[in-house]
Amino acid sequence: MKVILIGAGISSAIISLLLRRQYGPAIKLVVFDKGRSIGGRMTTSFDSEENPHCSVDTGAQYLTLTKSNSITTKFFQQLIDDHVIELLDKQNTIGIRENQDKIDYTAPRGIASIVRYFFEQAVVEMNLSKQITKIDFNSTNDKFTISTDKEQIDEAEAVIVTIPVPQVLCQLQGSITQLIDQNKEVKENLSQIKYSSRFAVGLFYSSSVTNLNIPWRIYYVDKKEHECLRFLAIDNAKRNKNEPPFSLIAQTSVEFGAKHIDDDKMIIGEEIKEKIFQFLPELSRDISNTKYHKWKYSQVIQSYPNQPGYVVLNEHPLLMLAGDSFAADSNFEACIQAAIESVKKIHPLTT
User: Fold this and answer.
1) In what order do the strands lie in the sheet with 152-156?
2) What is the rounded distance in angstroms from the CA atom of residue 56 to the CA atom of residue 110?
């Protein structure tokens, strides 16, 4: 059996892993994503070829385990055993909320390394820089075909779409649109899913800069302190690396993101960069590079009713929507739970 997954984020990665465990070598897993790198909203952005060890996590910053959750604990333990994550050092941090039932972990090689690890464990065929714009049913062979703007590129007995639902509704055409339109309840529920928006700015420093003059590694900025900035981190220090090259990541408030979501990323990014230096006057301005990211779909603030983990649009062949749009929360643990429910549903439909 062949399964196509659209989206190279954490939901597709975990679903791929679970499907590989379920079916072994009998299943072929093929992933498509419009981006140039793996990760989705768990993306790690690198400076340049001249400074390849300098990077920032532009989306999710670290993972949080609920100690009482025996299901997600197994996934965390695998990541720990294979040295993908390690405990987050909370010394010299500001604003992190303590919870006795929670443990925070950082990814030394960047947050995207977690997504990459699961895809590697799942043994997938990865296709990046491929924006899928159409999903059609092929009645001659009972499969779904997927296409870019230019051409049809693949087909399979099952297609799982994990990109944010607003992108599904506005970017995908073909049979998928017809299937959604035919089910008024599903269409209405999908239209109610909402995401927050925010901007991220990464500052990169060369190895020659040996001190940023910043005493903390993570700083959650209270809204009373700044109208725009909400999260700051010396990214290499956040990953328990306290030597050059240094990098800093800044993320804005949801309100700022919503206000400027239609504005030019570069213009807003420059504005945010200046706000960073105004807020941190002691921070070195000797940067080697700056990168800006607009998260139009950052975190789910209103998910699908009852958080089923997925929605099946067609059973045979299978067309499924999955991911954190259908999860109880917009975090790693909720994505694990949603992926488990998705695979539970897939198994009886494909046997």
Assistant:
1) 152-156, 143-147, 134-138, 173-174
2) 7
Could you read off the pLDDT of 232-262 as tens digits, one per residue?
999 999 999 989 999 999 999 999 999 999 9
Residue 351 pLDDT: 61
Query: From CA 117, how far away is CA 84, in angstroms rounded?
Result: 8
- Give dist(CA 60, CA 96) in Å, integer: 15
Domain annotation for the chain: domains and CATH numbers: 1-36+128-193+303-350 (3.50.50.60), 195-301 (3.90.660.10)
pTM for the predicted model, two decimal places: 0.96
Q: Which amino acid is at 173?
A: Q
Largest CA distance in the chain: 66
How far apart are alpha carbons 284 and 278 in whole angstroms?
12
Q: What is the pLDDT confidence band of residue 72, given thresholds at 50, 70 and 90?
A: very high
Q: Which pair of tokens denotes residue 210?
A: 């040996």
CB contact set of 50 (below 8 Å; sequence gap of 6+): none
Q: What does the alpha-carbon distance between residue 134 and residue 78 come to, in Å, rounded to a whole number?
A: 36
Query: Quick one: tokens of 37?
Result: 């790198």
Mean pLDDT, the chain, rounded, equals 96
Tokens standing for residue 129: 């820089």
Is the dihedral angle over the CA atoms 344, 345, 350, 351 positive or is it negative? positive
